[in-house]
Amino acid sequence: MLASPLVTPTWLQEQLSRTDLMILDASLYLPNEPQVADEIYRQQHLPGALRFDIEHFSDPDTSLPHMVPSVGRFARLAGELGVTPDTFIVVYDQKGLFSAARAWWLFRLFGHERIAVLDGGLPLWRNLGLPLEAGENHAEPQPAYPTALNYRLLCGLGDVQTALSVGQTQVLDARGAKRFAGEVAEPRPGVAPGHMPGSLNLPYDSLLNADGTLLLPQELRQRFQALGVDGLHPVIASCGSGVTAAVLLLALNVAGLPDGRLYDGSWSEWGQHPSTTKALGHDQISSGSS
User: How far apart are CA 28 and CA 41, in angstroms?
Assistant: First the structure.
């Protein structure tokens, strides 16, 4: 187990010669964003970095976006990427801290704990004048990864419905305040606006500094405590499609609080499911950014 799931650009630059190091660009953009992660990776990426496509590492048999793949699929793809139990992975993304947390969570879900997130991602690395490469790097395939699925990090729609009805679990929604309140349309067609009744809004970007790095542990604990998250009750994190919910789980870890669970379908599932209730308005919204 790592002392912290975050590493700094300076630390990572000093580790580039390690033979067990693998750097992954885990960038992802929303459907309403014009950027293409693969193209930006080819234009500039960290030295030696491989492309980690979250959509590729997902379940191809569901219409929901980037859902967790089967154990067999993850094991095969991780092996093809060159990951072994001894690999030390550092993930980053092109925004700063956005989708890298999803990759961090996904590897931990399947039992790989030797993984960290580059704090500040590509923007901070670039702003510090650290070296970058262009083109593509190619993986050195290994046998299928020996997975050990940690079900305590994952939950589904039924789990969230039960948690909200019982009331002993805190459900945090990482979307912006306007999306949470249903004041703006969702970026995916067919998904209703609003939020889960009883959930609390903690926009993921309210946990970040201006340079895209995560707040200090004490500041994170204060943000969580403002919502009543004290480590005594279970936490479920949700968002639009299971990506920025992982930022909340990363922040919990950095803050020294117990691991939460990620609702994989998140609002993409809840917002279009016929059995769910959708609430509107600003009730129970935290003081985070919109």
Answer: 11
**In whole angstroms, what is the distance from residue 215 CA to residue 237 CA?**
18
Residues 6+ apart with CB under 8 A from 56: 77
Q: Which residues are known to be catalytic? A: 239
The answer to whether the CB of 100 falls within 8 A of the CB of 28 is: no
Domain architecture of the chain: domains with CATH: 6-149 (3.40.250.10), 152-270 (3.40.250.10)
Non-local (6+) Cβ contacts of 216 within 8 A are none
Pick the closest to residue 262 from 207, 213, 204 (CA basis): 204
Calpha distance 236→134 (Å, rounded): 39
Whether the pTM exceeds 0.70: the reply is yes
Phi-psi region of 221 (alpha: psi -120 to 50; beta: other; left: phi over 0): alpha
- Count of CB atoms within 10 A of residue 13's CB? 14
User: Each residue's pLDDT tens digit in the chain (290 positions)?
Assistant: 578 999 999 999 999 999 999 999 999 998 889 999 999 999 999 999 999 999 999 999 999 999 999 999 999 999 999 999 999 999 999 999 999 999 999 999 999 999 999 999 999 999 999 999 999 999 999 999 999 999 999 999 999 999 999 999 999 999 999 999 999 999 899 999 999 999 999 999 999 999 999 999 999 999 999 999 989 999 999 999 999 999 999 999 999 999 999 999 999 999 999 999 999 998 654 333 32
- Show the tokens assigned to 181: 């309140």
